[in-house]
Amino acid sequence: MTYHHHMKALPQNYSHKEAEKRWQQHWVSSATYRWHDDRPRAQTYVIDTPPPTVSGLLHMGHVFSYTQCDFVARYQRMTGKDVFYPMGFDDNGLPTERLVEKTHKKRATDYESREKFVEVCDSVAEEARRDFRGLFQSIALSVDWEQEYHTISPEVQAISQASFIDLYQKGHVERRLQPFFWDPIDQTAIAQAEIEDKTLPSHHNIIQFGIVDAGTPAQDIKWGQIEKIKVMTTRPELLGACVALMCHPDDAARFAGKQAVTPLYGVVVPIIADEKVNKEKGTGFVMCCTFGDETDIAWWREHNLPMRVILNKYAKLELRDKDWLKPEKDRAFCSLVDEKWSVLHGLKVAQAREKTIEILREMNLLLEQEAITHTVKCAERSGAPLEILETPQWFVKITDKKDALKARAQECVWHPDWMRLRIEQWIDGLNSDWCISRQRYFGVPFPVWYSKRAGEEGKMLIADADQLPCNPLSALPKGYTRDEVEPDADVMDTWATSSISPQISAHAIHGDSARFASDGANATQEARFAKLFPADLRPQAHEIIRTWAFYTIVKAHLHGETIPWKNLMISGWCLAEDKTKMSKSKGNVVTPVELIEEQGTDAVRYWAATSRLGQDTAYSTELLKIGKKLVTKLWNATKFAAIHFDKLAQEPTTAAGDVQAGIITEALDLWLLTRLQRTVKKATAAFDAYEYCDALRATEDFFWNDFCDNYLELVKKRVYDEAGANPAAQQSAACTIFHALDAILRLFAPFVPHITEELFAHLFPARYEATGSLHARKPDQDAILWPDTATYPLDESAEASGIAAVSILNAIRKAKSERGVSIKVPVTAMVLAPVSDGISWELVAPVAEDLKAAGSVEALQWQAHAPEGSAQTDDARFAATFTFADAAAA
Fold first, then answer.
1. Is position 852 within any domain?
2. Low-confidence ranges of the chain (pLDDT < 50)
3. Are both 722 and 845 inside the same structural domain?
4. Is 293 helix (H, G, I), strand (E, B) or coil?
5. Are 777 and 830 within one domain?
6. pTM for the complete prediction?
7. What is the spatial distance between Cα 220 and Cα 8, in angstroms, rounded to a whole number?
8. Helix (H) or strand (E) holding 150
9. What's the start-to-end Cα distance of the chain, in Å?
10. For tag attachment on the chain, is the N or C end more exposed, with fewer CB atoms within 10 Å?
């Protein structure tokens, strides 16, 4: 009785454009990747997906990093796990505001109201989310779109505000008036992690300061008659903010009882000794201004110096109405200097620096000038050089928790492990708390007001849990009227929200079930939280370790004294083909939408799968060609091999089962299935270690070399068996091909989902109907789609014979190639002899008939010693001599 497989006929050719769109629509409409929430935590796999910033640019980096995570998600689902794989969109905050300002060519302050600007931001964010959804679906990300969130939604605002309140109540967050980094372009404070060092041109300017005895009346100071010293500065425009002259302690004795007089402004300032002054650099004297850099802040605090700020939030000089610059404040030679520096008022920093140098030169106070380049702290997003201003900001206290945070980072498993060093180095280098407030509009508001009631002026009022989400500009604290409160107008930095992405997916802050539960059932919320937090995996790029990874660890530690996830897989950058960063200015940007349309998603995913975690990888047209070649080969090899399914006398069970049942009997078949068992073992171990590229390499090696190049050639005659001479051997081959193709498609499925789904649906229609998809989690808890090593035989004897067969077949191919004849040209006789010890005919005998058929060898002989002139096989264990009909050839 013949087994009727009912395999659907495969079309002649495969069209990726038609098939990929069809399958993508099917997977979404049928919710193939749904998280079912019907299995215990141990059988649930939770991914904390990176919520992309909807900044408008869809680039190859998204394809590169997101598909790497998807390989793991698909593998875990195929192993039977209930995979929670959400997608979030980080659409609140400064990145979106900058996108709106750029696309609409209007700054936020140019809109008729704050509300109108926020409305436009909402619209642009929704459009960007739509574009990203389209891209992510086109690269076949197996996310559950029912779990989508975006960081400006009311639900996420509620949980973000709950996070803030929890930290505030635990004493981890506070509002402080202190000097901090300010971006004059984006008009907001920024955190340490959003600062980048740039090398910019500047000048070392050596200028004259005056020296007088302490207590000398200002009106008695005559510039031309006092002692002078040289002071080097790169920021002469801040002379009006000078509060002290710093020297090294070794020079302190010389200036005991002395004070300095600032040039141009005539302000008397103390001379202070401090170890931080490098007496070997410049002149050995440094002016301390409020504020030129972080050292100025340290000196200002340590020596209790006055606050003299002359820069406003637009980085313009404000010199009028400053107490320390008024004549009645006993400034020296004020009539001379006022008319000079008054022209600096209102100038931006760069202009003020240039003008100050010009004035100092005119007054003969600029002694030397040397062009230099130096490191300047700049805003990561706007690129603007930062200033330091004293403003009230919200800070999460982290500098006192470095050891605890490093310990949390070490609790997580990093892939690759050396990436963990980056976060440890970042934590070691922290010198400021995390500033989470931004002076912008499109973000999560702080649920805070300040009382104006008599007797409690300035008292901080925090929203109640049932008021969240809360906008203090329109809402009120309970029991207060509008006239009685001042709302906090700041919004949270976008990282303050995206840092709780695992908690957002879990719908709670560490079990706080009052947060936006859709069904209002606390037990349901608590069960969801227990199921989803901490997550199993955080995939992300290496450049945001110091922000996203670090901040998420901070929040998990401060909220619940735990880690947010068990594993991190860190991706590198996608580079241009010349291994430089892609940029529009270089013209080397590859757009993913057009590339996917032209090459096919599976080919693009293949390219991403060839990269290793943590390493930057260049875009490669060559690898895309190999990816397309793989798709074509899968189609053609499957089409060719699957015709033998109709020869099966009964339905196959498992490969091991069919061996035990005596259906698979031939040594070459057992060799292939043993190789398959080892391949499955390798690929499984690689995926479990998050080394998807090693899983791909092992699978490719089996498919191209073992299956296509060797096995199909070696068994071709046996499986066709047109004369019906050996039906049992034919059954053995047909059954082996069935199991090999089944495993090949499943092993490749995480990487090239479209071609594997297309072939699986055609080849195994009954199994496809039962599972709904090669990529869906099987309904049966005990059944898995990922190949199981236990279902394949391990026959080392047959494996050895198979290895010998491949070596001998290659010797036959080489002999015919050297003669310039087809593989089909008969070999009258082939003599094999051992070269290595321990090699006997028993090794070759089990595969001899397949070898003869594949190599068109009429007679295969064995002799103990190799005849003179024999050619060794490629594994150097045999020597072979060939006789063709017309002549003998070694």
1. yes
2. 1, 514, 516-519, 888-890
3. no
4. coil
5. no
6. 0.90
7. 105
8. strand 149-150
9. 48
10. N
